[in-house]
Amino acid sequence: MHGPGGCGRVEKLAIHGGPPLRTSAWPRWPEWGAPERAALERVLASGSWGGFPYPNLETRGFEREFAAFLGASHALACANGTFSLCLALQAGRISPGAEVVTSVYTFVGTAGGILAAGALPRFADVSPDSWCLDPAAVEAALTPRTEAVLPVHLGGGMADMDRLRELCERRGLLLVEDCAHAHGMQWRGRAAGTLGQLGSFSMQSSKLLSAGEGGCVTTSDRVLAERVASLLNCGRRDPGFEPAVEPMLGHNLRMTEWQAAILRAQLERLPEQHERRARNARALEAALDVPGITPLWPDPRVTRRAFYCYLLRYDAREFAGVPRDHLVLALRAEGIPCSGLFYAPLHEEPLLAFDPRTNPLARGGEDWRRGSFPVASRAAHEESLWLPHELFLGSERDALDIAAALSKLRSRADDLRAHPPRGAPTRR
Question: Is residue 172 predicted with pLDDT exceeding 80?
């Protein structure tokens, strides 16, 4: 059922017992069909299911095809996106205990990858325009121990790679991109993952390119690629490259053939999915005329958009002071999946447990949980509305339902304020 589309008398809110604006099912993720089934059967029949010898047949094919899709010289597939960050930093020869400046507004895996590499994350605030790493905050966070900067491309936005590249070149710092949300996004015509010395991708279940789990490191530097290939393959020398530059203690982080085969099929779908999401996002933007709800407009230098999530900025002042989390509960009740506290700022993230047995951050004298990150805190706790990307894989009508539901909630904002929902929304 589709609702009134914002026309005529506004029904009682669903969270107060009225009919939901939408009861129709949303597109499911992931999308799959005969190509994925054939890929799995191909691996099954081969009898060679694992990542050894590296790179195995399907992994080699995926690495070649993903590198070509991005315009990178090398793509090195691995087990997951947290350890692809670790591999990138270790390949960049980060010193033990060195600091890596990164966004405070990201998933805990960003910090986890830095810690796994033997380095320490140093958090910086984000830009109010993009909720991506603020170059001015990065410069303020630099210390003599800083050796790398790790921007996170968030939702449908990208960090200011012009300023970050200039800063890193000027200060002699390694630049590694966290592209877990950014498969196929472009900055001035160049793909995310090709703008720093190394890029890191996640292929976890919710990602735009998914095999359930998986990761990939990209680079156009042959020496860095050799190091990554050796590090993820138990320190072995990959037969496709020259002998390893130096001996390194490696890990078994190889991707399985099952994952690689699925990713090859999914990569074939990705360009059309990008076009579909972008078309429906434009429909939402054209229909969205709701004071207090503003799309997080992309930097014009983002020349190809991708939407891991579509981000909206919420201003409670236009909704009779209704807290963001109450809006999330009411929007879900109207049949629109969404999140508010999708990520907590990392200095307050409970998953980044301050336990000296497992977290090197807790072993020094400085309490890294302290600090002020006002932009990220406002985004996380007051302003952000996250719409999952599968909402944009359907029709324009789906996008219009999102706009109509937001319009309905604003029309009844006084009711929502007077009769707030109970409880708090789950984080995702």
Answer: yes
